[in-house]
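Hi R.,

Here's the chain you asked about this morning:
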Amino acid sequence: MPSPAQLEAANSQLKLTLKELTDTQTQLIQTEKMSSLGQLVAGIAHEINNPVSFIYGNIAIANEYTENLFKLISLYQECYPETLSKIQILAETIELNFLKEDLPKILSSIKVGSERICEIVLSLRNFSRLDEAEIKRVDLHEGINSTLLILGNQLKGQGKYPDIEVIKEYGNLPQVDCYPGQLNQVFLNLLTNAIDTLRESIIGCPLPESNIIRTGNKQSTNHNPQIRIITEVLDSNQVMIRVIDNGCGMTEEVRQKIFDPFFTTKPVGSGTGLGMSICYQIVHKHGGQLKCITQPFQGTEFQIQIPIRIKSFF
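And here is the predicted structure, written out as tokens:
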């Protein structure tokens, strides 16, 4: 019969093996999830890019043609001030004077809209980073901004939900060695969770007056949900990204489990419980730390601390 010490050692080994299996399963799910998400985003960006490039590339030409036609019409009106009745009737019917004033505005609006779509396409490409599976030196603000642009629709007010204000307090960060696509996934998970928390807190969590995010002279409570994103350099080789919401916050019991695989506070079918665990593993893989600071009714802050330069590959 094995001794108690042997049984204890075997039990410890089994626990370690179970943890390794759980971590491996989470990593496999993360890899598949990121691959599928990246391919989807990159595919959408590629499909949108071609027609948008055609529209944007031809707006200047269309505007030039329009201006030339209007010059020709004006010249005709100068040379032939006494126009035929049919021409006069048609000019009045189509409201020629208004058309000459409004059409350039329409073309300008089309140009602005196409520029906006081009920005979205670029953000989708930056977010997917399919061509950057290896460590790259990148601007973290670019990844955060791309993620915010993708989440733009969720930040807008819908029905009983007001707009969620995003306050960016960016420091002067150097470019950081990282896996860009994986860090973008961390930003996406943290910001999505903050949005969900703020939506839920509006319904079931009346916040006390003390739960305020201060920005200069401006104050906000739960009636004006906010997410603050703060970036700063900590020392010669560390940067920190802080994502802060003014939602309900968490109990200490929930906070201690927040990075456990398959732990979720969402209803059954609403979440896998892997998002925060994946974020923790990605940040740890970068040689960094991911911390959660929260109290009930006091909002939640996630701190990502990673090195600027990676001295060894993992």
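One quick note: The first helix runs from residue 4 to 79.

Cheers,
M.
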